[in-house]
From TrEMBL:
Cross-referenced InterPro entries: Aminoglycoside_PTrfase, Kinase-like_dom_sf
Protein name: Phosphotransferase family protein
Aminoglycoside phosphotransferase domain boundaries: 17-213
Gene3D superfamilies associated with the record: 3.90.1200.10
Organism: Nonomuraea mangrovi
Amino acid sequence: MVSDRFSTHDLELGDDVVTKRYTSWDRGEPHREWAALTLLAEHVPGLAPTPVRAEFETCPPAIVMTRLPGRVLRGEHVTEEQIRAMAAALNRLHHEIPAHVVEAVEPAAWRPALAVSKVRAWADKRPDLGEDPLVRQAVHAGAAWLASCAPDELTTNPLTPVLGLADGNHANYLWDEHQVRLIDWEDSGRSDRAFELGEVAEHISRVDGVLDAERLLACVDLTRQEAERVREFRRLFALGWFLMLGPDGPATPHNPAGTLERQAERVLHLLS
């Protein structure tokens, strides 16, 4: 049985299959993942592990899926080739599943209205982020943006929904020297494409390595309206992570020293 510092589950690795045992399942994680893998195997084969067997009644519940080769991109200096492969994988995911199929999928566990509510709740707590001038400037800029109508406009989706991972962690992107595949679908569901891309661009896992978010988004097929929504979601996610990086914040123990200051710069850049 193995796990790593990015995991919320335990993995049993076989030669050809992986057994994933869930450490929590209150959001229906096993059922969400099984449904997503089944749908992907039918409509976008090769993009994710193939489902083999579900064990929903065991404690903990588990699913068995095919084992894919490669290494995760979290912690890497992501190259141009890898960025293009990430974009290709995201374009396949977002374009190759028929709209009527996506419409029948359960909404993702993590979604825009919840994200807006959570970030505003963190801001209302006025977390202790210290006295650094740059950090304080980011706090004020973020508060002004949260008080505007921009976050509320993100809670409704005028665009065609997609199947989404609902988790921007770069550990969910598996590189095998030729292509990128997507893993860990336990929070997946029907989602807003701009929300998904904004979270990939701004997930705090980016501080573990280097991913040129601007380059990634340039390689993804985006309409002008989608690009504008992605920008606003990037602001939301960057600010949310920033607010959770105080001394008592939940994101602090997992990130290196100096992350708060780097995130303050990120917030100010995105809000400028």
